[in-house]
């Protein structure tokens, strides 16, 4: 089983189109991702580098059962979890929902009308992914070039 993410880099965030693929190569379903912008892999400021990773099931009080991406050079605790805002501030907390992780959802949309793209239906999308992923899964991240800002 594999999660494949095709990224598009923007100045304030990184948008992704992703799919979950079974062991036979069949696409189980498609979804969107949202990450911080590319800032040379800086901790708490950047998305992680493109590449192939392993992710393992992890538990936390905040996200319950979620995915932890392993062996990201220079980084730790890179998670795949729910949330809506990256590059934009969550109106409830005043902060983005991530500091380097990957958010999942149904579509990219400006939820809070600040002119910055957010991600919708994140919790339901996340639950659908977590319902079928094994204890360990491959994560493949590709992109269109780290200097392309197409707002």
Concise description?
It is built from 1 helix and 10 strands, in the order βββββββββαβ.
Secondary structure elements and their pairing?
Elements: E1 2-9, E2 14-21, E3 27-35, E4 51-60, E5 64-69, E6 78-81, E7 102-105, E8 108-109, E9 118-119, H1 122-130, E10 136-143
Parallel strand pairs: 1-10, 6-7
Antiparallel strand pairs: 1-2, 2-3, 3-7, 4-5, 4-10, 5-6, 8-9
Write a structural description.
The chain is mainly β and 151 residues long. The protein has one domain. The chain contains one helix and ten strands; from the N terminus they run βββββββββαβ. It has one helix at 122-130; strands at residues 2-9, 14-21, 27-35, 51-60, 64-69, 78-81, 102-105, 108-109, 118-119, 136-143. The strands form two sheets. Strands 1-2-3-7-6-5-4-10 form an eight-stranded mixed β-barrel. A two-stranded antiparallel ribbon has the order 8-9. Strand 8 (108-109) and strand 9 (118-119) form a beta hairpin. The longest helix is centred in the C-terminal third of the chain and has 9 residues, at 122-130. The radius of gyration is 14 Å and the shape is globular. The model is unreliable at 147-151 (pLDDT under 50).
Provide the structure class: mainly beta
Distance between the terminal alpha carbons, to the nearest Å?
Answer: 32 Å
User: What's the rounded overall pLDDT mean?
Assistant: 93
| Order of helix and strand elements from N to C terminus | EEEEEEEEEHE
How many alpha or pi helices?
1
Strand order of the largest sheet: 1-2-3-7-6-5-4-10
- Estimated helix fraction: under 10%
Query: How many structural units, i.e. domains?
Result: 1
Radius of gyration: 14 Å
Low-confidence stretches: 147-151
Estimate what percentage of residues fall within beta strands: 35-45%
- Please tally the β strands and state the result: 10
Largest sheet: 8 strands, mixed, barrel
